[in-house]
Amino acid sequence: MTDVARPSPAAGRPQTAPEDPPTNPKRKVLTASLVGTSIEFYDFYIYATAAVLVFPLLFFPEGDMMAARLQSLATFAIAFVARPVGSWVFGHFGDRVGRKATLVASLLTMGVATVAIGLLPTYAQIGVWAPLLLALCRFGQGLGLGGEWGGAALLATENAPAGRRGFYGTFPQLGAPIGFFLANGVFLVLSQAMSDEAFLAYGWRIPFLLSTVMIAVGLWVRLSLHETPAFAKVVASGETSKAPMVEVFRTSWRAVVLGTMIMVATYVLFYLMTVFSLGFGTDAETGLGYERSQFLVFLLIGVLFFAFFTPISGLLADRFGRRPTLITVTVAIIVFGLVMGPLMGSGGTVGVMAFLIIGLSLMGLTFGPMASVLPELFPTRVRYTGASAAYNLASLLGASFAPYIATWLAGTFGLAWVGGYLVLVAVLTLAALIISRETSKDDLDDIPSQVTGRS
């Protein structure tokens, strides 16, 4: 016997369609994603600059300067170990609670760690505790940035109109050159405005403490946002993941591996162009011997090309597709790796500027599409965790020890070996791109759990 259907208590009442989730104005979305990542990258890069110019002198025992620089670069690498942890912690809440609240929490985490660095006592004051506390704060920076990028990328791409995800995704990516420009610009102004003695005594702390003001601005922008429409639909349907990280590695582990390999050359390129080049360019004993302020100006000029080509790359990725754009750029990176030794090793201003401009232009072209490529590999319910995991595992493999490895290779074998190192990782990225599929036409609400199994 079958049950007889009974009329529901609501029978006869007028039915109303469920309300669409509130949307964010496009201008506010782009501003929030740009401002937030600019602040986060500023915080991250002032450490990178100080790790080359300041920390070897103040946070490690006096003696062999090369040893102190390598120890300082080792603390720099700690953040890249922390970033996958941050992607797990913040990705969990980003896929469970929401993009907005998690982005606010990641910004605060990064900010507190950065301001704390500006207040640390030096090795001369507290001995071995100084580098240990420095390493702890660096871990906090990595933790915050590990949750920042994924949320900012999703904020832009999940709010983007059809056919414009590549371009919208370049706005959080623009935070990298803007943050780098601000970080090195502040160091340049301080270097010009005070003596070396005053700079080492207290001036180096100013960039870290200035982060307080920038964080307040970032919080004000982000707290006014609504949740992204894609995630709001998942919440409304009751399909949020209970354990996003577990689900990602159970259902989309191939996408994590593929995304990591696609991103790894980008990381190596950037940290060779910035942290390594700054150390090598200003080292009077084993490098080129430029004045600190002069080489910072060189870098700031190069970063303008990074910023210029980042949005162009998004337009190209929307027009021609993600794979063709990135495959072409990665081949160009391989060629650049083969010639970087002669360019940088010439020591002349023309050769050094050509090295920085070409390398950082390629950086903009390869970095720009990543905020659309990586999120497009994962379904909405685990997209924050999946995109963050791929991005930050690539940072661990490609960036954490890149300055250290490059410094050792240059000092032991010469600059040509540094170029060979870049060629090697670019070949890995090229292979990943060749076996990947095009995702530019996908609907973000209809991406399968196992992306690599779909044609």
From TrEMBL:
Bilayer-spanning residue ranges: 44-61, 73-91, 103-124, 174-194, 206-223, 255-276, 296-317, 324-344, 350-368, 389-409, 415-435
Family matches, as InterPro entries: MFS (IPR011701), MFS_dom (IPR020846), MFS_trans_sf (IPR036259), MHS_symport (IPR004736), Sugar_transporter_CS (IPR005829)
Domain Major facilitator superfamily (MFS) profile intervals: 29-443
Membrane topology term: Multi-pass membrane protein
Keywords: Cell inner membrane, Cell membrane, Membrane, Transmembrane, Transmembrane helix, Transport
Subcellular location: Cell inner membrane
Keyword Transmembrane helix: yes
Domain of life of the native organism: Bacteria
Presence of the UniProt keyword Acetylation in the record: no
Region (Disordered): 1-25
Chief location category: membrane
NCBIfam families the record matches: 2A0106
Protein name (record): MHS family MFS transporter
UniProt organism field: Nocardiopsis coralli
Lineage: Bacteria, Bacillati, Actinomycetota, Actinomycetes, Streptosporangiales
